[in-house]
UniProtKB/TrEMBL annotation:
This is Porphobilinogen deaminase. It comes from Acidithiobacillus ferrianus. Its EC number is 2.5.1.61. The porphobilinogen subunits are added to the dipyrromethane group. HAMAP family: Porphobil_deam. The gene is hemC. Binds 1 dipyrromethane group covalently. SUPFAM superfamilies: Periplasmic binding protein-like II, Porphobilinogen deaminase (hydroxymethylbilane synthase), C-terminal domain. One of its GO terms (cellular component) is cytoplasm.
């Protein structure tokens, strides 16, 4: 049994924070081990400055290189933002643990305006997420939603330089980086339903590595895992990914999971919603996905992919 573990991660500041968070948790629960963080650049990182994510082809653009390293034995586990993880894992890999979730909400960040309702006609809002774009335009069709690329620090710098009147970012990332003071207003999930898996950190291992899976048991949060599984089940049925205007969030209500799902056209003119409750996360996700498909979700997704 190896006492030295290697964590694979993206090289962005937020990804490094997440890997360090996992490292620290491992060291608390297994004080006799040593942990090394191995950072690497993914295709998504390479393309992040060149084109908005919804124009990219393929899946797993922020995880593939890390998963390849895991399969080849170059690292022992991989740490991901669950919103970046495709609904289907490669053969030989599995998400062994999902840690307790941070704030799932989107954050409105602006130097001049307290919330989206205060933005004047034609105000420039930065976001490259079709999901955020669609929901923002649904409530505020008078705004100009423009592409915003780069890591968190780069996006905030562009706002500070006056390239945008406001930007929309994940609250979890800002809080984890100690930038919660930059949050001007937290968007209610009725206004901006989060991405599938938003705010959750997942730890991926090789399927045959029973020792590593055992080490990760104390890091897992059962409630978060059930909620994220429901969201990902919905997404898998829809064939969605992080580039599409698909949203979902699940929460426990007593002994049952409540799941809300959304599919939208990029302009926000058509937004489909469905919700349900249940105890089986996978079945619940399928139920919500089927309700969205019955409203026309599959055609919306197909039209976006063909555009």
């Amino acid at each position: 049994m190896s006492r030295h573990l290697r964590i694979g991660t993206r090289a962005s500041p937020l990804a490094i924070w997440q890997a360090e968070h996992v490292r620290d948790a491992l060291l608390r629960h297994h004080p006799g081990i040593t942990v090394e963080i191995v950072s690497m650049t993914t295709r998504g990182d390479t393309w992040l400055e060149d084109a908005p994510p919804h124009t990219w082809g393929g899946k797993g653009l922020f995880v593939k290189e890390i998963e390849d390293a895991l399969l080849q034995g170059q690292v022992d586990l991989a740490v991901h933002s669950m919103k970046d993880v495709p609904a289907q894992q490669p053969d030989g890999l599995e998400i062994a643990a999902i840690m307790a979730r941070e704030d799932v909400r989107d954050a409105f960040v602006s130097k001049a305006y307290p919330h989206p309702d205060a933005l004047p006609e034609g105000a420039r809002v930065g976001s490259s997420s079709l999901r955020r774009r669609a929901q923002l335009l649904r409530h505020h069709p008078h705004l100009r939603v423009e592409d915003l690329r780069g890591n968190v620090a780069t996006r905030l710098r562009k706002l500070d330089e006056g390239q945008y009147d406001a930007v929309i970012l994940a609250a979890a990332g800002l809080k984890r980086l100690g930038l919660q003071d930059r949050i001007t207003h937290l968007l209610d999930i009725d206004h901006s339903l989060p991405a599938v898996g938003q705010g959750a950190i997942g730890i991926e291992t090789r399927s045959d590595d029973t020792v590593m899976r055992g080490r990760l048991v104390p890091l897992a949060d059962a409630d978060t895992q059930s909620c994220v599984l429901a969201e990902r089940s919905m997404n898998q049925v829809l064939g969605g990914d992080c580039r599409l205007p698909v949203a979902a969030v699940a929460e426990w209500r007593g002994t049952r999971i409540h799941l809300r799902g959304l599919v939208a056209t990029p302009d926000g003119r058509r937004i489909l919603r469905a919700e349900a409750e249940g105890r089986d996360p996978a079945a619940l996700g399928r139920t919500v996905a089927e309700a969205l498909v019955a409203q026309g979700a599959a055609q919306i997704i197909q039209d976006i992919r063909c555009s």
